[in-house]
């Protein structure tokens, strides 16, 4: 009985801690981010000679112990208050980051004080400098001539999925990924059914993202855009199209991806500001950088290594982007 009371008291304290953080204005995403930073942060006094052994033990300890602690605390909080959410949810993103192999900071971000903006990027320079180093770059002339620029809109995607032979508004997201962020939508189908008022950004703000798995939709989408000109002919882009769409305000919170390869993302409408944060183990040599994407530009980066968040800039247009991975 005494142990049960201690468990209840612990769950109560953590539930109150979460509420206090939220009242203070601190977002759960930032709390999670600080948690992950502590997993990988290199002490300033840490010598390079000891880094490998430091990371080895750091990984073992955090990977084995913290997921169990996070899961236990989450269960305790939910038992005490079923309507609550965990302070740090033991999801696969957190676990993946905790087990991530330390980044080669010199290759990825050392000396990167700003994201370079280039035009007329040759395939050779792309391969030698950006393609696999993880160093981000914006190619300013990469999508300006695509018919997708100006053609893609909320109504375009709503009509596209409604007319697909393989999908209708009840199953367009079956087998695909959908990111609701803070929109309140439960699925892509739910989002595409939003009212005209909200779709025109006259109601509750929204920002969503999804991956398309419908081959018929893919075939239509790729009539509106080409493989970026700087990607070599023998390189392949992924089969999935990733689309992100929304109006002014916060986009995606700070996160790191779990995709197979580096990726590119084209800004087709509106403007979106990216904040790229180096991995915590690189903070002693690398900087956080920002860039605002203009219509017709493409950003290339390794989202498996750079923590990133986005914010939609007010321009009178929805921000619409499309992207894919490449090898």
From TrEMBL:
Residue ranges annotated for the Cupin-like domain, each copy included: 125-289
Q: Does the keyword Transmembrane apply?
A: yes
Report TM segments: 60-78
Classification via Pfam families: Cupin_8 (PF13621)
Spell out the InterPro entries in the cross-references: Cupin_8, JMJD6_ArgDemeth/LysHydrox
Q: Does the keyword Transmembrane helix apply?
A: yes
UniProt GO molecular function: 2-oxoglutarate-dependent dioxygenase activity
Q: Which UniProt keywords apply?
A: Membrane, Transmembrane, Transmembrane helix
Stored PANTHER family: ARGININE DEMETHYLASE AND LYSYL-HYDROXYLASE JMJD (PTHR12480), CUPIN-LIKE DOMAIN-CONTAINING PROTEIN (PTHR12480:SF19)
Q: What protein am I looking at?
A: Cupin-like domain-containing protein
């Amino acid at each position: 009985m005494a142990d049960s009371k201690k468990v209840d008291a612990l769950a109560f304290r953590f539930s109150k801690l979460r509420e206090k953080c939220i009242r203070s204005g601190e977002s759960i995403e930032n709390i999670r981010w600080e948690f992950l930073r502590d997993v990988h942060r290199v002490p300033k006094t840490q010598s390079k000679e000891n880094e490998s052994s430091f990371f080895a033990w750091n990984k073992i300890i955090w990977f084995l112990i913290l997921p169990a602690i996070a899961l236990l605390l989450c269960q305790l909080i939910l038992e005490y208050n079923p309507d609550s959410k965990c302070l740090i949810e033991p999801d696969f993103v957190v676990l993946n980051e905790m087990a991530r192999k330390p980044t080669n900071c010199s290759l990825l971000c050392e000396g990167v004080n700003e994201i370079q903006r280039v035009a007329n990027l040759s395939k050779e320079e792309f391969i030698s400098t950006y393609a696999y180093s993880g160093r981000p770059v914006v190619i300013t002339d990469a999508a300006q001539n695509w018919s997708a620029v100006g053609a893609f809109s909320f109504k375009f995607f709503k009509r596209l999925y409604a007319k697909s032979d393989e999908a209708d508004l009840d199953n367009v997201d079956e087998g695909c990924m959908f990111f609701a962020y803070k929109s309140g939508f439960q699925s892509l189908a739910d989002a595409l059914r939003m009212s005209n008022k909200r779709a025109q950004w006259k109601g509750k703000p929204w920002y969503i993202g999804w991956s398309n798995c419908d081959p018929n939709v893919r075939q239509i989408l790729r009539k509106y855009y080409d493989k970026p000109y700087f990607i070599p002919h023998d390189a392949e882009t992924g089969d999935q199209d990733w689309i992100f769409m929304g109006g002014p305000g916060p986009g995606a919170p700070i996160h790191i991806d779990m995709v197979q390869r580096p990726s590119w993302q084209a800004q087709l409408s509106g403007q979106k500001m990216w904040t790229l944060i180096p991995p915590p183990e690189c903070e002693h040599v690398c900087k956080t950088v920002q860039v605002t994407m203009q219509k017709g530009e493409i950003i290339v980066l390794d989202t498996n290594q750079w923590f990133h968040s986005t914010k939609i800039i007010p321009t009178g247009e929805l921000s619409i982007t499309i992207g894919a991975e490449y090898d």
